[in-house]
Amino acid sequence: MRTVARAGWVRRAISVAGGPPRVCWDEGVRSRWRVKPGERVRLADIDPGSTAGAPGGRTETSAALPALHVALADLQDRLWAESRRSLLVVLQAMDAGGKDGTIKHVFQGVNPQATRVTSFKQPDAEELKHDFLWRVHRAAPAAGEIGIFNRSHYEDVLAVRVHHLVPDRVWKARFELIEWFERQLVHGGTTLVKLFLHISREEQRRRLEERLTRPDKRWKFRHSDVEERSHWDQYRVAYEDALTRTSAAHAPWYVVPADHKWYRNWVVSRILVKTLGRMDPKYPQPMEDLPATIE
Ligand code: AMP
Ligand code: MG
Q1: Which fold has domain 2-279?
Q2: Are 190 and 141 in contact (CB under 8 A)?
């Protein structure tokens, strides 16, 4: 009964926000930021401060979020109950790009039991003894789950490339391996959504400075953040190649303008609600011989 009541609430929340077309079925923002397969990505041409398609400024756009949270929770409930398919959300960004904040804000309404978040750090000694996809495959979501990757196998063509951790021919071969790996996940019932949170160099400076000045953010500061920032252009080129080479119909990349956190949260929520809505997960049929009452 709980879920039936909640579904009703979802419909009401959606209609408060302006009717189902706005929340669930408008393709606009999703197709606007999707990297079409074969299209060459030039990040300089995409404004990190864009708020295109938003219902308004910060206040109006943030006000549209609760309905999306409810819709996401409802879809996740169905996905979990159906327990046949899964969703994998890959988050990549420059340092301070907002991966942690996106996870905290966009997924605040979801059921933790049906969600698996994995943060990929520098590979440890054991991971280094295996192929680069070994640790990634183990973290892939099981049937019914939403998997969230905070960084991912893409670091193996990004950080690894920028820091020359392997010979060029090794990381170059990985684009094709990644394509086949992702095909394998899709074949197994996983839907992939890959999100690149796109911030400007100036916004990164602002956020890193905030990590120095705000007592509640200082714990996040790493000297490596400043080191990595000096490789901004190399990372940009590496990202452009990765997005261009690996955005596919079965595993699309989205470039999400992320200088405005409120816009980023809204776009990511929209993409996820739309993607799950298209998957259309269904509650399983109840058993045929359900008793009418419980003694
Ligand atoms: P953070 O996400 O801020 O905790 O930082 C994690 C660090 O691990 C980042 O500097 C990443 O570039 C790095 N990292 C993650 N995966 C890999 C990888 N496969 N190879 C090298 N560095 C990695
Ligand atoms: Mg960091």
Answers
A1: Rossmann fold (3.40.50)
A2: yes
